[in-house]
Amino acid sequence: MKIERIQQRGPNDCGIAAIAMACGVPYDDVLPLLKKGSGGGINETDIYDWMLANGWAWQLVYKNQRVEHAKYQPRDPWPPQAFAPSHIVMVRATQDWHFTVMDGRGEVFDPWSADRKSLDHPDYRDVSWIMGLWPIRDRAFPLLFDDAWLKAKIATDPDLDCEIGSPPISSKEL
Fold it and tell me: How far is it, in rounded angstroms, from Cα 112 to Cα 91?
């Protein structure tokens, strides 16, 4: 998958730009996720929700793996080589935790700085996890959930803006 670098627009929207880059969608399509947080950007579960709603499967690999007697140890080697068409990567950059993107060849596309092109860049002090991404359905077709699940989701998620029976988004609207 060819990734086009997208510059983040503010100090807390690296996750928005990372999803847009990794999934090949416009930044503005992902921007509503910022409304879910407290102003400090998005988190890992926000990414899961977006991926599920937009037809993406993922595999998450954490730096530390569980070993005997409920203890953890770092994976070796770490970070792993690219293992999916695109990846979202959680790195500790110069200031704080930061989302960046890696393609299927291992090239990095950082939404803050175009100079960061690999995970061994000196600005990246740590890599916490890597999420490999695969598209599994066309965004023009809605997911099929039963009505009870959907009604419960709509009733409990104030950020969800839809109605049961509303038509799916067409490819032309994307």
Answer: 12
In-domain check, residue 7: no
Q: Cβ neighbours of residue 153 under 8 Å, at least 6 residues apart?
A: 145, 160
> Looking at this protein, which amino acid is placed at residue 161?
D
Reading the chain (174 residues) residue by residue, the pLDDT tens digits are: 899 999 999 999 999 999 999 999 999 999 999 888 777 899 999 999 999 999 999 999 999 999 999 899 999 999 999 999 999 999 999 879 999 999 999 999 999 999 999 999 999 999 999 999 999 976 555 555 445 555 666 667 666 555 544 444 444 444
| Helix spans in 59-173 (H) | 147-156
**Where are the strands (E) in the chain, listed by range?**
56-62, 64-66, 72-74, 86-92, 97-103, 108-109, 126-135
CA atoms within 13 A on the CB side of 149: 4
Same structural domain, 150 and 72: no
For the entire predicted model, the pTM comes to 0.78
Q: Look up the domain containing 67 and give its range.
A: 14-137
